[in-house]
Every structure is written in structure tokens, then in C-alpha cells.
Amino acid sequence: MELYGKKVLVVGNARSGIGAAKLALNKGAKVCIYDGKPYEKWEAAMQESIDAMKSQGIEYALGDEPNVESYDLIILSPGVSPEIHLIQKARHFNISITGEFEFASWYCKAPIVAITGTNGKTTTTTLVGEMMRSFNPKTYVVGNIGNAFSEEVGHIPADGIVVAEVSSFQLETATTFHPKVSALLNITPDHLNRHGSMENYCACKYQIFANQTVEDYSILNIKDTYYEEAKEHTKANCIDFSTTTIPERGAYLKEGQLWENITGVNRLVCTVDQLFIKGTHNVENALAAIAIATAFGVPIEMIKRVLTTFKGVEHRTEYVTTKRGVDFFNDSKATNTDAAIAGLVGLSSLNKPIRLIAGGMDKKVSFNEWVKLFRGRVEKVYIIGETKEQIVNTCVAEGYHAYATYDTLDDAVLAAYEESKPEECILLSPACASWDMFESYEQRGRLFKELVNHLEG
Q1: Residues with Cβ < 8 Å from 421, sequence gap 6 or more?
Q2: What is the pTM of this model?
Q3: 129 annotated as belonging to a binding site for a ligand
Q4: Are 183 and 117 in contact (CB under 8 A)?
Q5: Is 263 annotated as a binding residue?
Q6: Is 200 annotated in some ligand binding site?
Q7: What are the residue boundaries of the Mur ligase central domain, all occurrences included (predicted)?
Q8: Contacts of 48 (CB under 8 A, 6+ apart)
């Protein structure tokens, strides 16, 4: 769409919205940012940002909905549901609607590697970003990790590479987005409070394949429940990864070693023992990264170098410190039960009792499979957030009674520490989103680390 002189409304005044607004302004549009939060309720630093944006020519509508019928295009931030009243009204007037990620992709000339899935996205994207950067220094990691795509796209040259972590929220509004290499790591129940059903959630994930052709590549997980269904949604060349079988073409685990046969020859990449990131879920992430990077053409030596030096991602079973013989781990990125299960099982390999801090925003999913793993692993669970009652009820139903509820993360951390003994672990792994109490899982994880580092103060 030619934007010069057009009126564009950006919905959401967070990082993605601000990036989209600046990009639209740069393309000659008349831009307004709408957010339901009134100006006076923003923190001082954000008010300064709003004032600075206004000085650049961007208008604001804060608190009250603007008249949408006067706009040519509406750009949604990923955190905004496309079912809000303003968007329903825009559809009534046949106004074009897109998402921030899709909008940025309109102006990207570089090839895109896109990674989605319920779990493992951040670790895999970070790994692939490092592999691509060793192959081509003009690599940009964007999307659900790092900077918003719209913030970076104006600086990305045609001979660069984009590595994008893409969420279901971003794919929900993607229509023309076309990655050269796509990866769907797995699908398990998540964000059902937004998408309404697994069918809708899967449909969003499959949108990553929508515009790929036979000249592109799709990376899929043989073990995943939705593997066969996902294959039916892509026209691209399928490359698989697996920890249990050897694919016809893909990356696989065999006797403690990571191999690939994508180029037609079985090649050893590295051993599991050479990985700093531990656990079966991280072996899957490493195999996915091997498949993605090899499909793109990255030499095997560069792939191995990254895999054998990579120390992990912040907020993903991240070791924080040891105090009084008690180890602390930050797994704030575990925003659903499957991610929390992976963190819990992975940490159990240390053979230390775990004091688990959990709970957060209700995403309308079951906690049963997660709670079933507590017995024999979790010494006690310290529960916070709006899911407190649901987690307690699940613990009772599963016959697990070592739990207590707390009003704040501070209270939970202090209680866990006071009750802990040497040779135990304290693990923040919420199994829930953060938005009931925090702005993001990053804020939650960093507060946890700050609290831990000041416990003895």
C-alpha cells in the first residue's frame, strides 16, 4: 500500500506500536497512535516519549476511541486483540487492517527466517541468530525477541538476513508475510483466552507457511502432535527434526550425538555433552536450529561453533546465584504449562529438591499435567497471581498438598528462601503469562533476580 498522504491509525502505544508509527510517518503517512490508557496514567518517562513523538508530527488519541472511519489503514500492535470494539467498527467501514509485524514485512528486502511454536521459540531464534550472524554480519534478530520488526526494517539491507521470532498474535494478522525458511517447533494449548480454541490457535501458527513456495523451506518437528496437519499447510520443501527417529531429510539425535542429513550425506554436528544448554527440550531446540541454518546454507563448522559455545537465554532456566547452599533459577519465560514442564524436568536432573514459585495470568488452560510432576520433584509450590485458586484446586485434585499462596512475588521469594535448606533449588517457573502483575515476563524475571540478589540485605 502506498502510504504517502494516507491517514494511519496505530493501535497500542508500546514498543511495537511506536515502531510502526515511526515507520508509517517515514513513509509519508499522517499518523495517530491510539491507546485506551489516558495520558495522565502513563509514567513520567512514557509521557516524555509521547511528547517527543508529538513533536515529530505523530498525533495521539489516549483514553477515548477516535473516529475510525476517517482512516485509510489501521495497524494493530501484537498485544491488541483484533476483536476489540474499535477494530470491529473498522471492519464495518471496510478499512484496511494489518498487524505491526505484517506491516514491517512490506518494506523488507532481505530474506526472512521465521520461527514460531508454543515453546522453544526464543532459544531457537537466539541460536539461529548467532549462526546467521557468523555467516553474515548483516543479520537482524527481530519480532517477539529483540527489537520490533518495524523499528529495524528501515536499516536492513537487501543483502542482510532477518531472523524473526513470530508469535501467534503476530501471525494472526499476517497475510502477505513470506519467509524463505519457516520453522514450526511445536503446538500445545496456549493463549486460548485470546484465540478461543485450538483450531483457531493452530490456524494462526500455520499462517507462517501461507505464502511460501516450492523454492522455500519449512522446518517441522516429527514428534509434534500436529506434525502431519502442519505438513498439509505448506507448499515449501519440508525438513524435519527429531530426537526419536532419523528423518529422510533433517536433523536428528542418535546415541547422544546431533546429526544432519539435509544435504544428502549424514554429518555429525556435535554431541549432547558439548551443549551448555541442558534437557531434552534444548536438544530439540538445537536440532531445529541445525535444520534451519543448514537449509539456509550456513556451513556446518559455523553451526557447530555456535552450538558448543552458546550459554542459553535470559529467563529460560537461567542460573541466577547460590545463597546459603541454595541454587536460584529464573524460568520466567515459562509462560505456559509445557514450557514449565520442560524447565521442571530439566532442572530435576540436578537431583535436588525444588521450591517452585508459580502462577500468573489465567490463559484458560489446564494445569493437571504440570502438577502431576510435582510429587518427588517439588518440595513446595509458592503460588501468586490470578491463577492462585485454579492451581491450588489442581494440586488438591492431584493429591499434592505442599503449597501456599502469596500476594506478591516478593513475599513468595522470601518465604521460599526462609524455608529452604542447603542443596535445594528455588525455581521461578510460572506456567502462566505475566500480565496480571507485570508488564512482561522479562520484567517478572528481572525482578526475581533483583529480589534474589538482595535477599541477605
Answers
A1: 325, 326, 353
A2: 0.78
A3: no
A4: yes
A5: no
A6: no
A7: 115-293
A8: none
